[in-house]
Write a structure and sequence with these properties.
The protein is mainly α and 117 residues long. It is built from six helices and no strands. The protein has a single domain, classed as MazG-like (Helix Hairpins, Orthogonal Bundle), CATH 1.10.287.1080.
């Protein structure tokens, strides 16, 4: 499976199946899933905590480190998918609606190459 051949629906369905197989829906309240996502995001941040910006970009050149980072990203994604399933909303629709708001809030002609408001 690859990004260019996998739908968001396939990812959501895979997460739903994983949860169902383990009877974990009883534990997957929005609160618990949001907390899990935050915890996994913190574990991802640990990989970059004490490095400078250029060093953080070099993770791509270290296969072992890159694999650890990829696994943490997937943990975050798993919680996000489980949360979207738990709240029963269309993740793609919500994402594109949010990006539309972001484009209005941060127009490219005003923010191109800048990170400050």
């Amino acid at each position: 499976m690859a990004d260019d051949k996998t739908t968001v629906k396939a990812l959501l369905d895979e997460m739903a199946l994983f949860v169902k197989e383990r009877d974990w829906a009883q534990f997957h309240s929005p609160k618990n899933l949001a907390m899990g996502a935050a915890i996994e995001a913190a574990e991802l941040m640990e990989h970059f905590q004490w490095c400078e910006l250029p060093e953080s970009r070099e993770v791509v050149d270290n296969p072992e480190k890159l694999n650890e980072v990829k696994e943490e990203i997937c943990d975050v994604l798993s919680y996000v998918l489980a949360l979207a399933n738990s709240l029963d909303f269309d993740l793609s629709e919500a994402y594109f609606a949010k990006m539309k708001k972001n484009r209005l809030k941060y127009p490219d002609d005003k923010y191109h190459g800048k990170y400050k408001k």
